[in-house]
Write a structure and sequence with these properties.
Layout: H1 2-38, H2 44-82, H3 87-103, H4 108-120, H5 128-141, H6 146-160, H7 164-168
Helix pairs in contact: 2-4, 4-5, 4-6, 5-6
Length: about 170
């Protein structure tokens, strides 16, 4: 049994060594070609190119995080215009919208727009979350944007004189 095991190991090792040498040769050749192609960029022009790429990467990274926060604050300002609530309620609403954006397949800006549409149509502050969740689900189910779904549900609620749970039903 021991003899069979050692022969098997040698066969496996020997069967892998040859192909690995060929792969290493190809990779080394590729690396030499890449080094030769990039040689002109090693001077001042290359450094400027690298600096420009780094600058773009940093600015895009900052704008995507800071830009998203600015967009949310702008959308939330629209909520504050149409909803009558205290500062504490607005703080809770902001946290609720951000939490909903982690649960629903929507951005916090889109959810804030739903809150604004609901507030504009007279949905009570305590019912805003339920209305926004319902509008998000309707939008997904009927392949509509969240804004369209929210606007349609708000019109339905207002024209038929229903409350939020009745609209959901």
């Amino acid at each position: 049994m021991a003899t069979l095991s050692s022969q098997l190991k040698l066969t496996v090792l020997d069967g892998v060594t040859g192909p690995m040498r060929r792969i290493n040769g190809v990779l080394n050749g590729f690396q030499r070609q890449q080094t030769a192609a990039l040689a002109p960029f090693r001077g001042v022009a290359g450094q400027l190119l690298a600096f420009g790429g780094a600058y773009l990467g940093v600015t895009k990274g900052i704008s995507s995080t800071v830009g998203a926060a600015i967009e949310f604050e702008s959308a939330f300002a629209d909520v504050k215009k149409v909803v009558n609530a205290s500062d504490e309620q607005f703080a809770n609403m902001s946290r609720t919208i951000k939490a909903m954006s982690r649960e629903l397949p929507m951005t916090s800006v889109e959810i804030a727009q739903l809150f604004a549409a609901a507030g504009e149509s007279g949905v009570a502050t305590s019912d805003l979350k339920a209305f926004a969740e319902m509008a998000a689900r309707v939008g997904i189910a009927f392949d509509m944007s969240a804004g369209e779904a929210g606007e349609s549900l708000a019109k339905l609620k207002t024209q038929l004189g229903l409350n939020v749970s009745e609209v959901g039903d």
